[in-house]
Task: structure prediction
Amino acid sequence: MSKPVVQVINLGRLNFAAAYQAQCSARDKLINQLNLVPSSSSSSLKVNQYENKLFLVEHDPVYTIGIRRADYGEKLIDSLKSLGADFVTTDRGGLITFHGYGQLTIYPILYLGCFFSNKSIRCYVHRLEETVIDTCQKVLPVHRKISTISQFPGVWIEDNRKIAAIGIHGKRYITTHGICLNCNNDLSWFDHIIPCGLEGKKVTSITQEIGKEFTINQTIPLFLDSFAKKFNCDLK
Result:
């Protein structure tokens, strides 16, 4: 039985707008593929024929907000911009977060029908969380608790330090946006906001948890191995 094929594209260091444009282009290609098969037709493309993609990015500094918008106000926005970061409104889920150097951002542009028989967004988010947990388990100390918190999407260390945030968007069961995993980024950027709107929680990174530098380039092969395993797909 054939597996879904996901093309991995490392965009390197890139601003948010350019990365989002790449996402939209990939999403539109998948939508066009779906349009080739009428909904009334019993035929369909094989799972390995869909142009699923996985973009890897290291963003220039940017604060982003999702569709669950709080009243951030012009004063806060101006203050964040004065730090040298962009401020962008997006159509993903979740509240405010930060992307920047040393953080691995992953954008899976996937047709969920290739991976889940019920095309469930909830199953997809859980699978993303499992992928990050599996990635972190390869490098963090074995006694360190790496888990999820049911009401807060993302991955946590000891239930109080967030190492990865997840915010996605779905259109016709095609996903955009995705995961940001802190590798060796400067966590002080998060001091100026309440990350993901969660009071009393901290942000951490792989580097901080293991006590020595661990880079994006070291993280990527670990993540890709976990992604291929958890999504039962072939990467190219």
